[in-house]
């Protein structure tokens, strides 16, 4: 348990930061623009013609106000201020736990977007699987200003992180596994990995393959679905090398790859037994299965 005096200081700092309310609206670097939309929809694989006709996908809201490679930090940024208080109090670990976005409407090319941030709550200390910590929740609001002076909310985001004291010694990898959600829609996939099969959902009406799994076919809308067994071969479409922050029970870096499967769908996975410096776009990879326990076998990827 943390020192009660420290706890009081943390909550007092939280109250001060909350009392400041919303930050001043920070404008995006560029107005909503077609080239950025093109890059985004290409990366996501979204071919909706609306995104070629003047509208931007609502899920891009955060894109328009990103700070670029060398962002200038707002000294009054509530999230940063609260993180500093907790880090200084010994809560040095950080894990993102929730992100909920709501969209009022798609943005349109040419619109200029601003973002504000406010601290919603700081809750703790809580005992968690990674150690004792505080949950810090902030809310971002994206707005468009109209010529008549009206300010329109176009999107909001609730963002929650856990700031924690990392447990010493670090938990054993077998003890701390991020478990995927298994439900009616995804059971076939996890039953497949246990059987040494990489399964892809298929639409029984039109035959389209899809991943990740979902209840309805994005091509034809049919609910009737089955699965096929993939070859387990693909190539690296893109990747991220996770070097920081630390992940409990894991050695860094972790290599996260987006695989183009031979069957024509993409799947996110972990590349193992490969140096971060040796990953290349287009590199052929093959699936393998890592048994965690009776309930979970994870697919992993190796260089072919
Ligand atoms: Zn279909």
Structure description:
This protein folds into two domains: 7-166, Thiol Ester Dehydrase, Chain A (Roll); 187-303, OB fold (Dihydrolipoamide Acetyltransferase, E2P). The strands form four sheets. The protein has a five-stranded antiparallel β-sheet with strand order 1-5-6-7-3, with helices on both faces. A five-stranded antiparallel β-sheet has the order 13-12-11-14-15, with helices on one face. It has a three-stranded antiparallel β-sheet with strand order 9-8-10. The chain has four helices and 15 strands. The protein is globular, with a radius of gyration of 22 Å. The protein is 15% helix and 38% strand. Helix 1 packs antiparallel against helix 3 (78-88). It has helices at residues 4-19, 34-44, 78-88, 187-194; strands at 26-27, 55-56, 93-103, 107-108, 113-128, 131-145, 151-164, 199-203, 209-210, 225-229, 233-242, 254-261, 266-271, 284-293, 296-303. The chain has 304 residues and is of the alpha+beta class. The chain binds zinc ion. Zinc ion is lined by residues 203, 205-206, 208, 217, 219-220, 222.
Please outline the helices and strands.
Elements: H1 4-19, E1 26-27, H2 34-44, E2 55-56, H3 78-88, E3 93-103, E4 107-108, E5 113-128, E6 131-145, E7 151-164, H4 187-194, E8 199-203, E9 209-210, E10 225-229, E11 233-242, E12 254-261, E13 266-271, E14 284-293, E15 296-303
Antiparallel strand pairs: 1-5, 2-4, 3-7, 5-6, 6-7, 8-9, 8-10, 11-12, 11-14, 12-13, 14-15
Helix pairs in contact: 1-3
Bound molecules: zinc ion (ZN).
